[in-house]
From TrEMBL:
Pfam families cross-referenced by the UniProt entry: GntR, UTRA
InterPro entries in the cross-refs: Bact_HTH_transcr_reg, Chorismate_lyase_/UTRA_dom_sf, Tscrpt_reg_HTH_GntR, UTRA, WH-like_DNA-bd_sf, WH_DNA-bd_sf
Presence of the UniProt keyword Acetylation in the record: no
PANTHER family: GNTR-FAMILY TRANSCRIPTIONAL REGULATOR, MANNOSYL-D-GLYCERATE TRANSPORT/METABOLISM SYSTEM REPRESSOR MNGR-RELATED
Entry's Gene Ontology BP terms: negative regulation of DNA-templated transcription
All residue ranges annotated as the HTH gntR-type domain in the record: 8-76
Name of protein: GntR family transcriptional regulator
GO MF assignments: DNA binding; DNA-binding transcription factor activity
Organism per entry: Actinomadura decatromicini
Alphabetized UniProt keyword annotations: DNA-binding, Transcription, Transcription regulation
Length: 243
């Protein structure tokens, strides 16, 4: 079992399958891929899950979605294609737009205990929080929280009010003296908080999948903590292995 496959949400299986088909020529560059409905039937996935997979690939420049016509292959998978099977890491390479994110808050906040521990700070120490809802075809598909030390947020420009037009990975790399070297992720299923229920428009008792990631630089410092909260009704953990 590969680390990439373990605990991957179902949208990742759709992305990986489409990428394999593009690579092997089943869907050559310029060709049209099956409709959202057809992909949903093939993978046993809800429409929001299919839409998220297609939009992720479009954001990476691999697909082109044309209203009223369908979805077409724009380019072969990028060198960072495998990053999207780790939800926390995929957030780092996302270019935000007004259509893809709804920023909920950004500013100085006291560090929650778990975040403070990961950042090596005292509990309730002031840090910068950036929180937004990821939208996929206008569907609230994930809640993303980015916590950073105040100096990192300031020098990297994470304290902008609106969408970040440059991916977070690039902002951190340009601002830091050390290169980014490692991301550690932890996934767990839990009940949604009231705040998460409101942001993601969840039903009473609907569970969520929480992916908590810490981003380290080459000096060993944790420069960012990322939490991606996924509605349990839209995202399914899936893996396959030989017997």
């Amino acid at each position: 079992m590969s680390d990439d496959a373990m605990y991957a949400p179902k949208y990742v299986r759709i992305i990986e399958t489409l990428r394999r088909r593009i690579e092997d020529g089943t869907y050559p560059v310029g060709s049209q891929i099956p409709s959202e409905t057809a992909l949903g039937r093939e993978f046993g996935a809800a429409r929001p899950t299919v839409v998220r997979a297609l939009n992720e690939m479009q954001l990476l420049g691999e697909l082109q979605r044309e209203h009223g016509r369908g979805t077409f292959v724009k380019a072969r998978p990028s060198s960072r294609a495998s990053d999207s099977n780790r939800p926390g890491l995929a957030v780092l390479d996302r270019q935000e737009t007004g259509a893809s994110v709804r920023v909920l808050e950004t500013g100085r906040r006291p560090a929650p205990n778990q975040v403070a521990l990961l950042l090596g700070l005292a509990e309730s120490a002031p840090i910068h929080l950036r929180r937004y809802v990821g939208l996929y075809d206008s569907i609230a598909s994930e809640l993303v929280s980015l916590w950073a030390p105040l100096d990192v947020a300031r020098t990297a420009g994470l304290d902008q009010e609106g969408p970040l037009t440059v991916p977070v990975r690039e902002l951190l790399a340009a601002a830091g003296k050390e290169r980014l070297s490692r991301v550690r992720e932890r996934l767990r299923a839990r009940r949604a908080t009231e705040e998460e229920r409101a942001a993601l428009e969840l039903g009473e008792g609907e569970p969520v999948l929480s992916v908590l990631g810490s981003v380290e630089d080459s000096s060993g410092r944790t420069v960012l903590v990322v939490e991606v909260t996924l509605p349990g009704s839209l995202h399914v953990l899936e893996d396959s292995y030989t017997l």
